[in-house]
Amino acid sequence: METNKLKADFQLLGTTIIFLQVSNNFVHIENLQELEKKFNVEYEILNITTDADNHFAKIQIHINVQIDSAESETMEVELILEGAFIATSEMPVEVFKEFVNLNGCATLYSIARSIIISITSQTCSGGQIILPMINLSKLEEKNPDDNDSKN
After folding, report:
1. Contact (CB, 8 A) for 70 and 53
2. Exposed, middle or buried, 134 (CB in 10 Å: 0-12/13-18/19+)?
3. Per-domain boundaries in the chain
4. In 31-146, where do the E strands start and end?
């Protein structure tokens, strides 16, 4: 089947890394699975606008990961990733907002996961940080006002 026939109404226009910081004093990570890990993720809908033809949205996802060893070794990665999304104005704005909350966040989280895997595999031998899959419906519940306050 042709790709144009499969194309979703909701599309990613692009992403940019707003902030990226890595600090690491591990020389080599052994037994990564056994180390203490702290993980935080939040998102914010920066804006949702509509013109005659399209709906637009900008979202930022903020991820912080920290790994600590018993020997006071620490690796921390902080990433703020911004994404822009579009859909035709034929899509009702309420449906677009739902897509932004769930699909937009899922898209950015997947991209952020790959960035963090890549960076951590290059900054420390012996391991890479692979972020867990998350339930974005639960993440959405932490930010319920984003649907209404950013329009």
Report:
1. no
2. middle
3. 7-143
4. 36-50, 54-68, 74-88
Question: CATH second-level architecture of 7-143?
Answer: Roll (3.10)
3-state secondary structure of 138: helix
Span 64-89, pLDDT tens digits: 999 888 788 888 999 999 999 999 99
Mean pLDDT (whole number) for 127-151? 67
Residue 20's pLDDT is 97
Q: Which residue has the tokens 């790709």?
A: 3
Instruction: Note whether 28 and 37 are within 8 A (CB).
Output: no
Positive or negative torsion for Cα 86, 91, 92, 97: negative
**Token match 């399209």: residue?**
54
